[in-house]
Specification:
By secondary structure, the chain is an alpha+beta fold. It has twelve helices and 31 strands. Belongs to the glycosyl hydrolase 35 family.
């Protein structure tokens, strides 16, 4: 699709955290096979620009950093810090082993490699760190890339007004989002010895989207006009994104602003990009393709057909499991105060925090350190929701004699951009208070990382046939639904979650991501390659269960702009 749009190069981030999920444990298999991806680009006659970070932003969980960095003593991320640079070196050296043979200097398709990412932004956000220290860190990352063997042109990527903090000697400065061509050339000359080439490493044909906010859209004709202005003036451009894809599993990151303490990104990374989430041609694609055709000398192939699309009118969910019931049968971690996900050595998913009260207590429950979303129960009965996204950290509560407070906390993705990236612990990170009194003593924490699909066949005693009596019993409780469905043909499809609450979905064991009734995303993309002819399995973890379900369906077109 990219080649048929007229592009000659694929630019791709590398996500450190998916390749090193645990310290010293490396994974470049299956969908994480970066070298294979680069080879395929080369086979298609395209060059590759690698953007390995180690920080990448990308609306990705923790900007690409592994969550466990936060557990290393003396660690300060994104800084001239010995512990941090030891970890970045290990990552960069390991990455070179994987892709070093694919550099253009070795006959491969990789023509450029980026150092760090939008570091000038971070310099402007972290004025508490001296500029010279920032520059020393940036130079060391560039040197680590060179020392590892990345002997192709290196570049930095920043807003043109941020080159002072973000550029580093010996790397080409490129200007993100710069539409003023005269200014682009002037500022690149200033920081690159009076010479080009001139490149916009991020030209935005769309924009990122958060839960509970409108889906941004950019006009196709404006994008086409700006593309033409660049090409006419011999400016190289990288469309960010030309195809965004999907934040499967727990890979989506988050932003924040004055109104919201966290703005979690959607599962869909459609981005209103020229190539849609499912790989479809859009009007924006056609507009840009028509412009590029006028300026390139190489042939542009025909646009490929869409992948096959299917619709499944009904998938029966025949089993339902009581999540609190089975969680509380697991062995808890106990402590005097609630522990963070990181203290529990858990990266993602959910933790059920419980505490039994042998005396009644009532008043305002406060959890200012909630990270990020909690459903609160007393003896299994839902009493409210706390939500960092909406800045709701307190609620009225009444806990009777001999009752248990249960708080099911969800990590909605670590912040990936801005100065707050250094404060990214999850779970409950500060004292829990009721009527102003800190609640200590014998907190039990039950871990639900959802790193693998829950197996209901092993949850004896808490799994029910999904009928009316089970529905009535489990209404407003967190549940896991499961079902099977049979296909005689496979294709891409979109699962319709508009009438559900909040949760995640596994298809054939793969976590396809998060849904949430607030929108604007109401469907989740299921690639056909993850379905199979014959029997398929679905498992849905539904956190709210306000309207118990017996079935779910898929549709042929995504719903990404319906805000509730």
């Amino acid at each position: 699709m990219m080649k048929a749009m007229g592009l000659n190069t694929v630019a791709t981030y590398v996500f450190w955290n998916i390749h090193e999920p645990e310290p010293g444990v490396w994974d470049f298999t299956g969908d994480k096979n970066l070298a294979e991806y680069i080879k395929i680009a080369g086979e298609e006659g395209m060059m590759v620009i690698l953007r390995p970070g180690p920080y990448v932003c990308a609306e990705w969980e923790f900007g690409g950093y592994p969550w466990w960095l936060q557990n290393i003593k003396g660690m300060e991320i994104r800084k001239d810090n010995a512990e941090f640079l030891k970890c970045t070196k290990a990552y960069i050296d390991r990455l070179y082993k994987e892709v070093g043979g694919l550099l253009c200097t070795k006959g491969g398709p990789i023509v450029m490699v980026q150092c760090e990412n939008e570091f000038g932004s971070y310099v402007s956000q972290r004025t508490d760190i001296p500029l010279e220290e920032h520059r020393a860190y940036n130079a060391k990352i560039k040197q680590q890339l060179a020392d590892a063997g990345f002997d192709v042109p290196l570049f930095t990527s920043d807003g043109s007004w941020l080159f002072e903090g973000g550029s580093t000697p010996g790397a080409l400065p490129t200007a993100n989002g710069e539409s003023d061509i005269a200014n682009l050339k002037k500022v690149v000359d200033q920081y690159h010895n009076g010479k080009g080439p001139y490149m916009v490493a991020e030209f935005y044909p769309g924009w990122l989207s958060h839960w509970a906010e409108p889906f941004p859209q950019l006009d196709a004709s404006k994008v086409a006009r700006q593309t033409e202005a660049y090409l006419k003036n011999d400016v190289s451009i990288n469309f960010y994104m030309v195809h965004g894809g999907t934040n499967f599993g727990f890979t989506s990151g988050a932003n924040y602003d004055k109104k919201r303490d966290i703005q979690p990104d959607l599962t869909s990374y459609d981005y209103d990009a020229p190539i849609s989430e499912a790989g479809w041609e859009t009007p924006k694609y056609d507009s840009v393709r028509n412009v590029i055709k006028k300026y390139v000398k190489y042939p542009i192939p025909a646009v490929p057909d869409k992948n096959p699309i299917i619709e499944i009118p009904s998938i029966k969910l025949n089993k339902v499991a009581d999540v609190i019931g089975f969680a509380e049968k697991m062995k808890p971690v106990s402590a005097d105060t609630p522990l963070t996900f990181e203290q529990l050595n858990q990266g993602y998913g959910y933790v059920l925090y419980t505490r039994r009260f042998n005396q009644p207590i009532s008043g305002i429950l406060e959890i200012p350190g909630l990270r990020d979303y909690a459903v609160v129960y007393v003896d299994g009965e839902k009493v409210g929701v706390l939500n960092r996204n909406a800045k709701i950290y307190s609620m009225e509560i009444e806990i009777p004699f001999n009752a248990t407070l249960q708080i099911l906390v969800e990590n909605m993705g670590r912040i990936n951009y801005g100065s707050e990236i250094v404060h990214n612990n999850k779970g409950i990170i500060s004292p829990v208070k009721i009527v102003g009194r800190e609640i200590t003593g014998e907190w039990d924490m039950y871990q639900l990382p959802m790193s693998e699909v829950p197996d209901l066949s092993k949850l004896t005693g808490d799994v029910y046939d999904n009928n009316e009596s089970a529905s009535a019993k489990l209404k407003d409780c967190p549940v896991i639904y499961s079902g099977t469905f049979t296909l005689d043909k496979i294709g891409d499809t979109f699962i319709d979650m508009e009438n559900w609450g909040k949760g995640i979905i596994f298809i054939n064991g793969i976590n396809i991501g998060r849904y949430w009734q607030v929108g604007p995303q109401q469907t989740l993309y299921i690639p056909g390659v993850w379905l199979k002819k014959g029997e398929n399995k679905i498992v849905v973890f539904e956190q709210l269960n306000e309207k118990p379900k017996t079935e779910v369906r898929t549709v042929k077109t995504p719903v990404l702009m319906k805000l509730n």
